[in-house]
Amino acid sequence: MRFYTKTHQYYCGIDLHAKTMYACVMNQAGDVLVHRNIKTNQDCFLTLVSPYRDDLVVSVECIFTWYWLVDLCAREHIPFVLGHALYMKATHGGKVKNDKLDSHKIALLLKGGMLLQAYVYPAEMRPTRDLLRRRMHLSRQRAHLIAQSRIRCISIICRLWVCAWAFGEAAVLFLKGSPPAQQWLQKQTSRHGKGKALAILSKKLGQTVYAMLKKNRCFDEARFMAHLK
Q1: What value does the mean pLDDT take over residues 166-177?
Q2: Is the pTM higher than 0.85?
Q3: Contact residues for 65 (Cβ-Cβ < 8 A; gap 6+)
Q4: What's the confidence (pLDDT) of residue 8?
Q5: Please, which of 52, 55, 132, 171 could form a disulfide with 201 given CB 3.0 to 4.6 Å?
Q6: 10-120: which CATH topology?
Q7: Contact yes or no for 38/147 (Cβ under 8 A)
């Protein structure tokens, strides 16, 4: 773990967002000199810190919008510290949280030597890193979609298997109470075998149940046996 322990006359903690940024500037004694919400803009930032640039260090949390600020500080020769996002949350976590408090806590951690640093990627390496991160996100999303599609396929297959098993049981029960169906089974068994004969009967029962539900009709054994022959 690398903590930033250098001392300065002024410390600037920034809670950075895409359109706005809350900046807190305090001195070595801990007095807050500036605590203001400004636009995420180079000119606004330089204007805010201009009275303190002689001995100023700037810090933000490691999020996706820090590139422009580190490049600006490098051009303006302002020391910059990138705070480790995970450890910063653990260090200054609290029940109350907003941009104003976050910027003040970042400045306090920076002044107190308790700010854990994250690696500042060089500008020439950032596009490659962003591409790899995006590729990792898409790979995970692809794997998730493939897994979900397989789960849906398995679910459909289990439902079909349950239906086939149910109508197989229905065919056995139907045969027990229907002498015409028993005679039909004997004939079909001599032609196709008992297993195929039961499969034919269960299929016909499934088709009949579908027709009954669709047309709102009751089961007619005589009509069923006529179609079965």
Answers
A1: 88
A2: no
A3: 16, 17, 18, 40
A4: 95
A5: 171
A6: Nucleotidyltransferase; domain 5 (3.30.420)
A7: no
